[in-house]
Structures are given as C-alpha cells and as structure tokens.
Amino acid sequence: MKFLQLASLFGAALAVPAADLDARQTCTTPKLRKDWAKATTAEKTAYLNAAVCVTKKPSRLGLVNATVQDDFAYTHAILYNQIHNFAAFLPWHRYYVMVYEKALRDCGYTGTAMYWNWVNDWAAPSKAAVWHNVTGFGGNGVETNPNDIRKRVIDGPFKNWRPQFWHSSVQPHALSRDWSTAQNGDPELRGAFYSPTAMVPVNAKTVFDEFRAALEDGPHAAVHGGVGAADDNRGLGDMGFNNASPSDPLFFLHHTQVDRLWWLWQQQNPSARTMEYNGNSPSLPDGSNGPPVSLNDKLPMGGLAAEGVVRDYMDVKSAKLCYKY
Ligand SMILES: *[C@@H]1O[C@H](CO)[C@@H](O)[C@H](O)[C@H]1NC(C)=O
Ligand SMILES: *[C@@H]1O[C@H](CO)[C@@H](O)[C@H](O)[C@H]1NC(C)=O
Ligand SMILES: [Cu+2]
C-alpha cells in the first residue's frame, strides 16, 4: 500500500511536462560575473580563447560563409527595431548576453560573462585593460586599405577576424574600430558621457522606463560611438552606429556592464524594482504609441535560442539566468 502510494506520487511527478520542470528549477549557486580589469590573466586567456573559437565556428543559423559570431550580429541586426529604444532593451540584451555565455561554454569555457566597467575608465578610456594586445581585445583600428575607409584592428586576438555583416547586409570586412578623440577638454572615446558624474542622473531615475532610456541613450550609446564612430558619426568601426555591432566581441563586455548597471539600479529597491517593467512598445505603423509593455511579452531570439518571456529575465537569480555581480 505504502509502496503504491509512493509509486503514484512518482508517477505524478514524472507526468509533469519538461517545460514545467524547467520553470520549477531554482537558482541555488549563482555564478559571479567579473570585471575584466580585475580578472586574472588565466581567466582572461580562457575567455579570449573561447571568444576566438566563436568567431571560427560555422554558423548555426546556416548563414553562408558565416560563423557563430556572425549569427549573433545577424540576429541583433534583424531584430534591431524590436529590441532598442523601448523597455525590452534591458531584458532582451540580458537574455542575449546569456546566450553568448552559452556559446563561449560550447567552446570549452567554464567561466561566466565579464564586463568592462567603463565608469572606472572614463577619464582615460584608451588605457583600459580591455584593449590590451595580449590579455584583451586589441586596440583601435588603423586605415590599411585605401578602398575601405573602415579602420582595421591590427593587434590582439581578433586581428584576423572578418565579420560578414555590416548593418543587415553581407559585406565581409576586417574587424574595425574608430575611436573618438579627446575634444574640448573632454576625454577620448566620449568618456565624459559615462563618468561617475554623468551616471548620477541616470541612476537617480525612479521609473524603470526612464532609467532604461537614460542608460540606453546616454552612456550605452556613448560607448558604442566612442569605440566605433570617431568624431563624425560615420560609424566606421563595428561597434559604432551599426546594428551588426555584436560583430565586435567587445560588444558583450559592454552589454554585460549595461546589464550590471540595471542590476545595481534594481538593487536600490529590490522588492519594488526587480520585476518593475513599464513603458510603451515600439510605435505602430501609423505613428501612434505602441501598447504598454507587459512581463508576459515575448523576447524573440531569431533561432539563436528559444523565444523567451520578459518575466524570466528580470531577476538575475531566476532559474534561466542564475548569476550575480
Ligand atoms: C562565400 O564565399 C565565396 C568565396 O569567398 C564567395 O565566392 C561567395 O560569393 C560568398 N557567398 C556569400 C553569400 O557571401
Ligand atoms: C603589444 O604591445 C607592446 C607594447 O606596445 C609591444 O611591445 C608588443 O610587441 C605587442 N605584442 C603583440 C603580440 O602585439
Ligand atoms: Cu543592442
């Protein structure tokens, strides 16, 4: 009798569909994401080896002449208007960085995503540890080809990496960076836009979507432009105003920092802010406001990974994320 009862309990448990089992998993040991500048040489080397591997593995999406790194750039470019300039910017990129972390693991990496804390480097961004030619991502680009005004990265582990995409079109080219120079007493790479002083009004926002807009339009955009768009906004580096900006592996250290800043904002009032999600969806074709966003909104991942739901990507300690800073 006892055995039968137990057996039927097990039977009931086994009958739960796999998706529900997944949702019930808990996060007991969140993995720490580290600051690149504070990681050991061995940790940086392990990350870079896996990141180079991602730029060499054949596309999983079946893109011609392309690699897994191109899959990331392509997916970001195709979904661009659905994942920027409104609330989904934060949870979508949180999920996306996690998908990249998984791609690094598929290349033998056992660590976690890392971040470039550009707030610490704002006064002299060109001296940041991330640009090191051996234990970093290489530095600024230089003009090497009179027929291509993009500036090629010629040092570091990605000097031979050739992204396939430029915006949404096939345009194979060498990885490029085009740093903004120091101007009017401000540091190079637009550092003044992500200094501790510049961060004060961003972090002081008290409504999720106002924080999202201030972070996205301010420091987030300044780092893209500072690394990839020189002084004339032409966007001649991959990280510049280019919706295939994930072609530059540095993109993921930038976005892990954006993610960390959101997490820090949530930590100012965790009970209210961890699940706070608001604002309007992108404008409708007739120009009117899109509908208000919801925690039940979908997060498309274009075949790179399963479609997600916003609710599962709000809390870094959720079952699907399970990390800490
Ligand atoms: C793929 O690469 C080959 C050889 O470089 C080239 O001839 C072909 O046009 C490329 N196809 C695409 C779609 O880029
Ligand atoms: C890295 O930069 C240093 C200093 O400029 C230089 O001496 C060294 O040769 C470079 N190493 C590589 C692998 O590019
Ligand atoms: Cu983006």
From TrEMBL:
PANTHER family cross-referenced by the UniProt entry: TYROSINASE FAMILY MEMBER (PTHR11474), TYROSINASE-LIKE PROTEIN TYR-1-RELATED (PTHR11474:SF126)
GO-annotated molecular function: metal ion binding; monooxygenase activity
Keyword terms, alphabetized: Copper, Metal-binding, Monooxygenase, Oxidoreductase, Signal
Organism: Schizothecium vesticola
Residues covered by region (Disordered): 274-293
Signal sequence coordinates: 1-15
Protein name (record): Monooxygenase
Lineage, opening ranks: Eukaryota, Fungi, Dikarya, Ascomycota, Pezizomycotina
All copies of domain Tyrosinase copper-binding, residue ranges: 84-101, 248-259
Pfam families cross-referenced by the UniProt entry: Tyrosinase (PF00264)
Biased composition, class Polar residues, residue ranges: 274-283
